[in-house]
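Second opinion, please. Please look over this fold, written as tokens:

===
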Amino acid sequence: MNLIRHKVLDQIRQDILSCGFQPGEELREAELADRYAVSKSPVRDALQRLQFEGLVETEPRRGHRVTPISVADARDILEMRETLELAAAKRMVRDASEEDLAGLDAWREADVSDIRAFASYNRGFHVALSDLSGNRRLAEEMRRLLDAYERLCLVSLERLRADQGDMGQALEDHCDLIDALQARDARAAARISQRHVRRSRGQIMKGLENRPIVD
């Protein structure tokens, strides 16, 4: 039974983060139970957990809905991401092994033709960086932050229909950052990381403008 509950929780969470359920969309227990072929009980438990995580909210007399994206929250997410990534980069330059830094070469290529494929690659890359920081709490917080960040990307950049040039530039930034980390150049790594996050911030905030699903 616990396995079913965890599976339903993971499925609903992933559908929210991937925008299978849009921000602000109403979530009905009976419909979710049919969707995942389970009873209402694990769905109800999952919604309570997701409410605790901030992905679901309860409306009086209406039930549950996916938590909308707010411009203020988007700014907070992007600011926090810059802070954590700068800290991770400094620790990697100082503490990561040569073998671990060499392993970053696996992230030098990505599919820049599809925003969802690139968003998944992007999350994996930044998770890998935070893991190599050697700070477990930083890595855990970065994972949670990147879940929220990925949803921002899908909501905002799909609206802009981001072209391959946008994602190509992001991939180029990643390669530049890998070069700096492998050279153990802390100053260059910090500069590239900051430039990369701030460019992303500009694109995302532009994409959130005038979106009906954004508070």
About this structure: The first helix runs from residue 2 to 17. The first strand starts at residue 26 and ends at 27.
